[in-house]
Design goal:
The structure holds 2 protein chains of 2 kinds. By secondary structure, chain A is mainly alpha-helical. Helices cover 74% and strands 0% of the residues of chain A. Chain B folds into 2 domains: 88 residues, Rna Polymerase Sigma Factor, Chain: A; 78 residues, Winged helix-like DNA-binding domain superfamily/Winged helix DNA-binding domain (Arc Repressor Mutant, subunit A, Orthogonal Bundle), CATH 1.10.10. Chain B is elongated and about 60 Å long. Classes of the chains: A mainly alpha, B mainly alpha.
C-alpha cells in the first residue's frame, strides 16, 4: 500500500487530532515503514522546534512611535479647531521632546534606545548587506528630514523661548548625528553606531513633526481670529 | 473579573479615550503581534514598522469592533492581513518565494534533521507566504485551525493542509543536502522580501 495516504494522517498523529482507530492504523504503519517513521520523527522535531521559538520582545521605542502616530490620527479626527490652551500644551510637548533628546544624547553610550535584533540574520549576511542598507536608510531619513525642515522653516511664528529651545535641541541632535556618522566611519559594521544614528534621525523627525503641527495650529488659530464671526463647522471641509 | 469581562471593559475604556487604556491594550498584545510581524515579514525592522501599523489600525478601528471574535483574534487577523499585503506589495517578478505545490510529495531525506531554532527561523523565512502564515500561527503561536481559519479567512481544512505542507517544506529545507539552509539561502530570502 502506498505511503502517500499516510502523510497527512502523520501530521494529524503529531498534532494528536486522530481518533483511536486512525491513530492505531498510523502507528502500525510507522512500525512497519522506516521511511514514514523518519518522516514522522522529522515533522515532530519541526513542530517541537517551532513551539520552542521565543517570542520577540518589542523595542521600548515602539510604543512611543505608536503613541505619536495615534496622537496624529486623533488630531485628524478632531478637526482643525484648537484654542490657545491647546497650543500651550503643544509648545510644552516640544520642550518635553527636547528634554528627551537631551537625555538621549547625554547617556554614556546612548544606550536608552531600542536595539533591534534580527534573529534570522547571520553575521556574514549582516556584513554583506549592512553597507547598502545603511546607505538606503540614511537616504530615506535625510529625504524625510529635508522635507520636514522645509515645512518647519517659519519658526518666527513660535514663541521666542520655544523657538530658542527648539533651535538648541535641533543643534544637539545634529551633533549626535555627526557623532554617530564619525563612529560609523571608524567602524562601518558597528550595530550600536548604526542604531544610534538611526535613533538620532528618528528623534529629529519627531521633533520636526511636532514643530510643524504646532506651526499649523498657530496659523489656523490666526486665520480663525482674522475671520471672527464666521463660525465654521469643524467637520465640514472646503 | 473574568477574561472576557476584563477585555470588554478595556475596549470600552479605549473607546472613551481614557488615559492609559490603549497603552494597556498594547502591552497585552504587543509581544505576540511583534513576534508575528517579524516572522511573517522575515525581518525585525519591517516587523517593527508593521507592528506599529497594526496598532495604529487597531486604534482607528476599535470603534467598529463588534466583539464577534475575541479581541486577540481580531488583532491578529488585522496583523496577518497587513503582513500578507505588505509581502505582496514588495514582491518583485522573478523573485517570488517558492510557489505553492498542490500535490507535494515529501522530499527525500538526504541527511538527518539536526536543525536548531536559528535554522528553523531562516527556513520559515523561505516558506511561501500562505504556508508561512498558517505555520507560524499554528506551530509557533499556538492558534488552532478554527482560529486560523477565522484569522486568514480560509476553511479549517485549508489551514490543516497548509500547515502540513509547510512542515514538509521545512523538513525539505532542513534535511536536503548539500543545499542546506545557509547564509546564501537566507540572503536570497531576505533580498526577495526586501525588494
Amino acid at each position: 500500500m502506498s505511503c502517500q495516504r499516510y502523510h497527512e494522517a502523520i501530521n494529524g498523529w503529531i498534532d494528536g487530532s486522530l481518533d483511536i482507530v486512525e491513530r492505531r492504523e498510523v502507528e502500525d504503519h510507522l512500525h512497519a515503514c522506516p521511511s514514514c517513521a523518519a518522516l514522522a520523527a522529522d515533522l515532530r522535531r519541526v513542530k517541537e522546534l517551532a513551539a520552542g521559538l521565543e517570542r520577540k520582545t518589542p523595542p521600548p521605542a515602539l510604543w512611543n512611535r505608536i503613541e505619536r502616530a495615534t496622537r496624529a490620527s486623533e488630531r485628524g479626527r478632531r478637526g482643525p479647531r484648537f484654542g490657545p490652551a491647546w497650543m500651550a500644551v503643544a509648545a510644552a510637548a516640544i520642550v518635553a521632546v527636547a528634554m528627551a533628546v537631551a537625555l538621549f544624547v547625554r547617556g554614556p553610550e546612548a544606550p536608552a534606545v531600542a536595539t533591534r535584533t534580527d534573529a534570522g540574520a547571520t553575521p556574514i549576511e549582516v556584513a554583506r548587506t549592512v553597507e547598502a542598507e545603511l546607505r538606503l536608510a540614511e537616504q530615506h531619513y535625510e529625504n524625510a528630514i529635508a522635507g520636514l525642515e522645509q515645512l518647519a522653516r517659519d519658526r518666527q511664528l513660535l514663541d521666542p523661548d520655544v523657538a530658542a529651545t527648539l533651535q538648541r535641541n535641533l543643534q544637539v541632535i545634529d551633533g549626535a548625528i555627526a557623532e554617530s556618522r564619525t563612529a560609523l566611519q571608524a567602524q562601518p559594521g558597528s550595530h550600536p553606531a548604526q542604531q544610534s544614528l538611526f535613533d538620532a534621525f528618528r528623534t529629529k523627525i519627531a521633533l520636526l513633526e511636532d514643530t510643524i503641527y504646532l506651526l499649523s495650529e498657530i496659523r489656523r488659530n490666526s486665520q480663525a481670529s482674522n475671520g471672527s464671526g464666521a463660525e465654521t463647522n469643524g467637520d465640514q471641509s472646503s | 473579573m473574568d477574561v472576557n469581562a476584563a477585555e470588554t471593559e478595556l475596549i470600552e475604556r479605549c473607546r472613551r479615550n481614557e488615559p492609559g487604556a490603549f497603552e494597556q491594550l498594547y502591552r497585552d498584545h504587543s509581544t505576540r503581534v511583534y513576534s508575528l510581524t517579524c516572522r511573517l515579514s522575515g525581518s525585525a525592522s519591517e516587523g517593527e514598522d508593521l507592528a506599529q501599523e497594526v496598532f495604529v489600525q487597531v486604534y482607528r478601528k476599535l470603534g467598529s469592533f463588534r466583539g464577534e471574535a475575541a479581541l486577540g483574534t481580531w488583532i491578529y487577523r488585522l496583523a496577518t492581513n497587513l503582513c500578507l499585503d505588505h509581502l505582496r506589495r514588495r514582491r518583485v517578478p522573478g523573485r517570488e518565494t517558492e510557489p505553492l505545490d498542490e500535490a507535494m510529495p515529501p522530499a527525500t531525506r538526504t541527511r538527518p534533521l539536526t536543525a536548531d531554532a536559528m535554522d528553523l527561523e531562516r527556513a520559515i523565512a523561505r516558506l511561501p507566504e500562505g504556508y508561512r502564515a498558517a505555520f507560524v500561527l499554528h506551530d509557533v503561536e499556538g492558534f488552532n485551525h478554527h482560529e486560523i481559519g477565522a484569522i486568514l479567512g480560509i476553511a479549517e481544512g485549508t489551514s490543516k493542509s497548509q500547515v502540513h505542507k509547510a512542515r514538509l517544506k521545512l523538513r525539505e529545507y532542513l534535511t536536503r543536502a548539500p543545499r542546506k539552509v545557509t547564509e546564501a539561502d537566507t540572503r536570497a530570502g531576505v533580498r526577495t522580501q526586501r525588494s
